[in-house]
Amino acid sequence: MRTSLPKARPKYLDLLKIKLPITGVVSIAHRLSGVLLVLSLPLWLFFLDLSLKDTSSYNLVAGKLDNFFFKMLVIIGFWALIHHFFAGIRYLLIDIGIGESKQSAISMSKLVFAAEAVVMLFIIGWLI
Amino acid sequence: MTWRAGGIRPWILQRLSAVFMVVVLVLFFFKLIVNGPSNYSAWHQWMSDSFWNTLVIMFWLSLIGHAWIGIRDVVMDYIHPDGIRFAVLSVFGFYLAAMTIWMLKIMFGVSA
Question: Which domain holds residue B23?
Fold first, then answer.
């Protein structure tokens, strides 16, 4: 009979020690981006309101808001939208039976990040 | 309010609203990139066009339903004490309602 337990037992729910598979990263980022999108609603409505007010307010928005802080907010907002969009499409595909096997789930997750990276580069290039 | 949150209906609503929003987003960004407005009056005209005005409002209603179900799922996963859960969900409910009123004021204002 064992009299003492090993000192350093593994903690499987230690978030810092868990290495998530890529499918898990897509999943948690889908959650995070969803919450971010909900929290960013006032930002988008602010832009929509401003852009439809009059010519000078429109020009402010169309002039890409010459402000570092707003640019960062817009980039984060677009990341949330783009990630949620592509990861969401992946879930819709899984619902109809596409990409359920382990290997195709991994490839589709890679595809989500690849598509997201391309669109984000395009958006950052347009904003700067 | 009951915590028997369900169920198959929100599950279906989440997917239906997602598909609808994907279609509208693709249409919107396609038009924006291919034939985007070059000035204020073109943008104003686009948003006051009754087809697009209606589509944008329908997009918003999908978004609010989708957001509510999503927030509800996340809150129920991470917040367990009933009181705090109720409070957080209530705050989100008021928040989404307020955002909706703002959104409708913008879209009705532009179509008038």
Answer: 8-111
Closest by Cα among A122, A45, A84 to B109 = A45
Q: With contact defined as beta carbons under 8 Å apart, do A52 and B110 qualify?
A: yes
CB atoms near residue B45 (< 10 Å) = 13
Classify residue B1 by burial, with Cβ atoms within 10 Å: 0-12, 13-18, 19+.
Answer: exposed
On whether residue B35 sits in a domain, the answer given is: yes
Any domain includes B41: yes
pTM above 0.90, yes or no: no
**Average predicted confidence (pLDDT) for chain A:** 89
Does residue B105 lie in a domain region? yes
B33: CATH: 1.20.1300.10
This model of the complex carries an ipTM of: 0.90
Query: Within an 8 Å CB–CB cutoff, is residue B43 touching chain A?
Result: yes
Q: 9-38 in B: which are within 8 Å (CB) of A?
A: 15, 18-19, 22, 25
> pLDDT confidence of A3, banded at 50, 70, 90?
low
Q: How far apart are CA B66 and CA B18, in angstroms?
A: 7
Stretch A7-20: mean pLDDT: 71
Whether residue A125 lies within 8 A of chain B, CB to CB, comes out as no
Residues A92, B102: C-beta atoms closer than 8 Å: no
Provide the residue range defining the domain that includes A35.
22-127
d(C-alpha A30, C-alpha A40), whole Å: 15
